[in-house]
Specification:
The chain is built from two helices and 20 strands. By secondary structure, the protein is mainly β. The longest helix has 14 residues. The N terminus is likely disordered.
Length: 234
């Protein structure tokens, strides 16, 4: 079911020019006036607009001051459509009136690479920057927060300014396949250590397969740090 919000508020915006000059009203100024009307009614998120109908630029000769009045704002919260009336006043007199139609998009702050991040590189805070993106373009799996990205390792090359998905990064690999590490087994105060070769890459906390370098016996263990794994007996 569609939900339509009907707003009867009025928003005024002023533009000034020197005497005798032509005063121009741009589409950006019209959009800003509509945004302010949204904010007046409690929709304060940052938003981007597209106009599909109505006049959005004006040239007013010999006007010293122009005001933009937005009224009758109607919006569809499901389809992000809106309509409104814009009235342009030049020096206190009505100069133009138009019916506006379009779509609005709620914008969200997203962390993206500030530089090219190579495959295998660990992401640092200084590698990231904040951009605004339409929230409807952020699909499931997109990582938007710095806390979700810093310390993660790139599984592929991450391009500057491009959004990062959860499949693009992973926990930092600290033990690589072929590395010789110390395996530790603890039980009732007893600790046994042995040298083992990693048969697969592993991040801290992951369970990987290894082989004992002397007995050639394969086993699984939890990665503790870059040099140590702990054997867990189920």
């Amino acid at each position: 079911m569609k939900f339509w919000g009907i707003i009867a508020g009025i928003c005024l915006s002023a533009v000034q020019a020197m005497a005798g000059e032509t005063l121009f009203v741009s589409e950006k100024e019209i959009a800003d006036a509509v945004r302010r009307e949204f904010a007046e009614q409690g929709v304060e998120e940052q938003m981007e607009m597209e106009f599909f109908g109505g006049q959005t630029t004006f040239a007013l000769e010999n006007a010293k001051q122009v005001k933009i009045m937005i009224s009758g704002l109607v919006f569809d919260a499901e389809q992000n459509k809106f309509s409104a009336t814009a009235e342009i006043f030049a020096d206190g007199k009505a100069a133009a009136k138009t019916s506006l139609y379009g779509k609005y998009y709620i914008m969200q702050e997203v962390k993206v690479p500030a530089v090219l991040i190579e495959k295998g590189e660990v992401i640092a805070a200084e590698n990231l920057k904040t951009v605004l993106m339409r929230s409807n373009r952020l699909k499931t799996g997109v990582l938007t927060e710095e806390s979700e990205l810093v310390g993660m390792q790139a599984k592929r090359t991450l391009k500057e300014g491009k959004i990062i998905n959860d499949r693009d990064v992973g926990a930092q690999i600290i033990i690589k396949r072929g590395k010789i590490v110390t395996s530790v087994y603890r039980s009732k105060g007893l600790q046994i250590t042995a040298q083992a070769e990693a048969l697969e890459d592993g991040a801290k906390g992951e369970r990987i397969e290894l082989v004992n370098t002397k007995s050639a016996k394969k086993f699984f263990a939890k990665v503790i740090d870059a040099e140590t794994v702990e054997i867990e007996i189920e």
